[in-house]
Amino acid sequence: MIFIDTCVVIEYLKNNSFLSQYNIEELFVSEIVVMELFQGAKNKSDLAFIKKELSVFKIIDTNGKVITLSMQLLEKYNLSHNMKIMDAIIASTVMVYDLQLITLNEKDFKFIKQIRLINPFKEKSK
After folding, report:
1. Residue 95 and residue 82: Cα distance in Å, rounded?
2. Which of 65, 87, 99, 118 could form a disulfide with 94 if both were Cys (CB 3.0 to 4.6 A apart)?
3. What is the tally of structural domains in the chain?
4. pLDDT in tens for each of the 126 residues of the chain?
5. CA 126 to CA 124: how far, in whole Å?
6. Is-contact 93 31, C-beta < 8 A?
7. Residues 6+ apart with CB under 8 A from 19
């Protein structure tokens, strides 16, 4: 099972097809990713498009365990790696649910040993 970082969903919405190499049943997002995408909508039709396109992905719950671990990650990595709140929540989500993380922003997560990163462009070239 694979969690999709916001930057990858944005590329998917732009019609980049690199997610086609994965089984859609194994791809997950969280409410946090959905909210980030909704925030980026320019108008009502853009928002409707985002909602429609996101309907193919399963949404994982951002529960108390995720938030607690997010706070721990921020405490540990904010000063040393400039970790951001959304990245801490995404990192803790993949850790709690034991998922791989597909991202274009490996630098935001590579210092956390428990996270199994996938870069879709690197994977595609193999």
Report:
1. 19
2. 99
3. 1
4. 999 999 999 989 998 777 888 898 999 999 999 999 999 999 999 999 999 999 999 999 999 999 999 999 999 999 999 999 999 999 999 999 999 999 999 999 999 999 999 987 775 544
5. 6
6. no
7. 4, 8, 12, 27, 120
In this predicted structure, what is the pLDDT of residue 125? 44
Predicted local confidence at residue 6, as pLDDT? 94
Task: Yes or no: say if 93 and 3 are a contact pair by the CB < 8 Å rule.
Answer: yes
How far is CA 24 from each of CA 9, 18, 111, 119, rounded to the nearest angstrom? 13, 12, 28, 17
The domain that holds 49 is classified in CATH as: 3.40.50.1010
Q: Which structural domain range is residue 99 located in? A: 2-124
Q: Measured between alpha carbons, how far is residue 106 from residues 35, 46, 51, 103, 115 in Å? A: 21, 28, 26, 6, 10
Across-strand partners of 10? none
